[in-house]
Amino acid sequence: MKKLLYVFSAVIFLSACNQAPKTAEEAKDVKTTAAEATVFTVDKSASAVKWEGAKITETVHFGTVNISEGSLAVKDGQLDAGSFTLDMNSIVSLDLTEDDGKLKLEGHLKSGDFFMTETYPTAKFEITAVEAAPLQDGSTHKISGNLTIKDVTNGISFPAKVTITDAMAEASAKFLINRNEWGVVWGGTKTEQGIKDYLQNNLIKDEIAFDVTLKAAK
Question: Which pairing describes strands 207-217 and 38-42: parallel, antiparallel, or unpaired?
């Protein structure tokens, strides 16, 4: 009886710890590039998208995913529109070596347990609004847009640092998403697996952190 109560308490505790706040907003119309805007093409080699995931035990994994294409549109010296596409098959882990399980983790992330990259090879972010919003952390704007992962599109908003010159446009931002809101669900239910496996699998946090730097030139 004590063992049963312990397991029950552990499940309740785990569920409470892993209830990440909602990050998704209603998707909005994508901002179209104005005819008079200057379009800068994202430099894939100079830009970067870093990701980070963790367990509630503080075990952290991190890595990168490549940008396959992107652009930033500038109107009257201000960021006005833009988008970028991610090659989800390029996901790599940088915290592990092959001996530590690097290839296993990367395969797991690409499988149906997470991003299902064979069916959904790309993810995309498209700007819906940009507004000036300077903050003490150095960010200059609030960027809103539609993020599509596994054919699920939700709106998100986050602070960003935007720099515009005659020759280039640059935007950088850090933000979190709750992966469940994009159908990236892992862990199953207690009825589908043993209690031990359930507890181990659901130690994975719902949040995925992204650190994005886009550098674009004419």
Answer: antiparallel
Residue 192 and residue 198: Cα distance in Å, rounded?
A: 9
Entry pTM: 0.86
Please give the pLDDT value at position 59.
79
User: Contact 127/81 with Cβ under 8 angstroms?
Assistant: yes
Q: Residue 71 carries which side chain, given as an amino acid letter?
A: S
Instruction: Go through the domains of the chain in sequence order and give each one's CATH number.
Output: 2-217 (2.40.128.110)
150 backbone φψ class: left, alpha, beta (φ>0; ψ -120 to 50): left
- Residues with Cβ within 8 Å of 196's Cβ and at least 6 positions away in sequence, in order, are none
* Per-residue pLDDT tens over the stretch 19-58: 678 999 999 999 999 999 999 999 999 999 999 998 777 6
